[in-house]
Amino acid sequence: MVDGRTTSPPAILSRLVQMFRDEPNGQDLNALLHKVLDVAIEVADADKGTLHRLDDESGCLKIVASRGFSGSVLKYFETVDRNTNTTCAAALKRRMRVVVDDVTTSYLFVGTGELGIMRAADVAAAHSTPIISSSGHFWGVFTVHFRYPQPPDRYDPTPLDRLAVLLADFLV
Fold this sequence. Notes:
With 172 residues, the chain is an alpha+beta fold. Helices cover 38% and strands 22% of the residues.
């Protein structure tokens, strides 16, 4: 239990479904996106998070919600294209979850400027989940960030996958 909330996968999924039922379509999208990000951080027991939306015109991801990051880090990752060395860019390209359990040993980050930014932001691991509707529409990516390297299979990502589909179906 975290902050008085039940965090078992069935309880989380139940909360997610209720959250989307309670939110009138089109009302306070910013607040909803931050709630979704908070749930993703809670599910993964992560320290921080970002939620990027795909800009159809540019093909880039743009931050629409964040928790735990300074303004300079958010500015650096405000717009992410497919060639940026990040888990969210890889999730955009692959259209599947991308897990980096240690940024200091990942091919995505070693030898890049992004590694320095991640280390300065106190991020040692990042897991990105694409937000794709049940009809296949790609909406964006949410990423949970950890202060410490993560052991493989530390948590069940199924609720994050469900959250991504619920959000995409709600927004599309």
